[in-house]
Write a structure and sequence with these properties.
mainly alpha, about 0% strand, 2 helices, about 55 residues
Length: about 55
């Protein structure tokens, strides 16, 4: 049985994150991550809660 190599993250993502951290500092990278998390949470909440809408 062959063992596949473990890939922790996509190379383009780590390269982009490293470039953003070098150019802008960790503060802007953290800000982008937080914004994406908030938008993802809103989208997930909308997706889950839309099933409770009644069309009576």
């Amino acid at each position: 049985m062959e063992h596949l190599p473990h890939v922790t993250a996509a190379p383009w993502f780590t390269e982009a994150a490293g470039a953003a951290a070098k150019e802008q500092g960790a503060g802007n990278l953290l800000r982008v991550v937080l914004i994406v998390m908030v938008l993802g949470s809103v989208l997930l909440a909308w997706f889950l809660l839309r099933g409770y809408k009644r069309d009576d």
